[in-house]
Design goal:
With 365 residues, this protein is α/β, with parallel strands linked by helices. Among the domains are: 2-37 and 74-103 and 228-299, FAD/NAD(P)-binding domain; 113-224, FAD/NAD(P)-binding domain, CATH 3.50.50. Helix content is 27%, strand content 25%. It has 8 helices and 23 strands. The strands form 7 sheets. A 5-stranded parallel beta sheet has the order 6-3-2-10-20, covered by helices on one side. It has a 4-stranded mixed beta sheet with strand order 1-9-8-7, with no helix packed on it. Helix 5 links the parallel strand 13 and strand 14 (194-196). The longest helix has 20 residues, at 278-297. The structure holds flavin-adenine dinucleotide. Flavin-adenine dinucleotide (FAD) is lined by residues 12-18, 35-38, 42, 44-45, 47-48, 75-76, 100-102, 119-120, 145-146, 149, 261-263, 276-279, 281. Residues 12-18, 35-38, 42, 44-45, 47-48, 75-76, 100-102, 119-120, 145-146, 149, 261-263, 276-279, 281 line the site of flavin-adenine dinucleotide.
């Protein structure tokens, strides 16, 4: 067992919340060290396009050294206030810590779930892309944002591949407005995607799924949702494994450890639960980074003011859909706007966190 003291702010996880925490910390003149298992920042919002073949593989991730002062390759196994244990037996200590370890694909008790390909990391996207390029049919289980964007990308990049999307719900994009669900179905149907709603998958096979005893052939992909797992690290969590934080994003009951992004349960000022999204992770990372620096300086903390502004989905082939507040951009003549917006948001994230290197290595360049 070795112990290592980290100068400045220690950030656990190099995703959207992690690199935005690092940005805040560095802007305040303090050092940001990130511990992450791969040392890469995955551009998760672009992974459906990479896996489906409408974006180049270089869009999937970039080295975390572009975003932080120090990168420590490691995996957190447990955490106490100001102390993080790694799987190699090292304990890292710091006067301010921000936990941003994200979420993982849920693994429900469906027979054969191990056959399904997940999509959350650069490695997942590259493996899936290679498999999709050599198969003639894909079955995506899950009609949320991940499944819909992946189906759109595959159908745009490989029109001869049969794509089926299956969901137990009676509509696509159940987490968004009804108009967006209808619009996603319109775009996907125009591309020849089969949509099976109200269908529960009984079993996942090596090459297909079983629904009501009937097999649908295709490379099985699991896009059935994600869960945080804060409880596994000894952190206070709700029933869904999301870490409980106070209004300053401090872990409940602790003084020098904060949390941001999918792993944490973020609320609006009115106490409404915010969705797991890159947009919220970015806002929370910025706020957690600022409060971590205030902790180092002994200054009073600021309340985090987080808000959900809407959704922007890229369905590939210059089509997409968006919801801005209560307004859904779903008219056919508006299809081009969301992919452009999506690209713009990804670019903003890169330039804000990496400076001009972000522009030179821009997605799709
Ligand atoms: C295919 C797909 C498309 C999406 N598209 C959109 C979109 O268009 N818009 C949108 O707003 N949201 C989108 N989302 C959701 C969005 O990507 C997530 O909400 C966002 O990535 C959350 O950021 P995060 O920093 O909390 O987690 P992540 O970005 O997942 O980062 C977590 C980091 O923690 C690291 N980590 C994990 N465990 C440990 C550990 N034990 N120790 C150390 N490090 C660890 C991981 O390696 C990773 O680098 C999409 C999600 C998917 C899967």
């Amino acid at each position: 067992m070795t112990s290592r003291a980290v100068d400045g702010v220690l950030i656990v996880g190099g995703g959207y919340a992690g690199v935005h925490t690092a940005r805040s910390v560095r802007r305040a003149g303090r050092s940001a060290s990130v511990v992450d298992p791969t040392g890469r920042h995955d551009f998760v919002t672009r992974l459906a396009a990479v896996a489906g073949g409408t974006a180049p593989t270089s869009d999937a991730a970039a080295p975390l050294s572009d975003f932080a002062d120090d990168v420590i390759i490691g995996s957190m196994t447990a955490v106490r206030d100001g102390e993080v244990d790694l799987s190699d037996g090292t304990t890292l200590t710091a006067d301010a810590v921000v936990i941003t370890a994200g979420a993982v694909p849920i693994t429900p008790p469906i027979d054969g779930i191990e056959h399904a390909y997940p999509l959350r990391t650069e490695a997942d996207a590259l493996e899936l892309r290679a498999e999709i390029e050599t198969c003639d049919a894909v079955v995506i289980v899950g009609g949320g944002a991940t499944g819909v964007q992946l189906a759109g990308a595959i159908a745009a990049a490989q029109p001869r591949t049969a794509v089926t999307i299956v969901d137990v719900s009676d509509r696509l994009l159940a987490g968004m407005g009804k108009a967006s669900g209808r619009d996603a179905a319109r775009i996907l149907c125009e591309r020849g995607v089969s949509i099976r709603l109200g269908s529960e998958v009984d079993e996942i096979l090596e090459h297909g799924v079983l629904i009501d005893g009937e097999a649908t052939d295709g490379l099985p992909v699991w896009a059935g949702g994600f869960a945080a797992r804060a409880d596994q690290f000894g952190l206070p969590a709700n029933d869904e494994g999301r870490l409980l934080v106070d209004r300053f994003l401090r872990v409940e009951g602790w003084t020098k450890t904060f949390a941001a992004g999918d792993i944490a349960l973020h609320l609006t000022e009115d106490g409404d639960e915010l969705p797991m999204s890159a947009q919220i992770a970015v806002q929370a990372g910025d706020a957690a980074g600022r409060n971590a620096v205030r902790t180092l300086r002994g200054d009073a903390l600021d309340r985090a003011d987080l808000g959900h502004r809407g959704w922007v989905l890229d369905l590939g082939g210059n089509r997409g859909l968006a919801e801005v507040g209560p307004v859904a951009l779903t008219a056919p003549f508006l299809d081009l706007l969301p992919p452009t917006l999506h690209w713009g948001i990804d670019m903003k994230h890169l330039i804000e966190t990496r400076g001009l290197a972000g522009f030179n290595d821009r997605p799709g360049a």
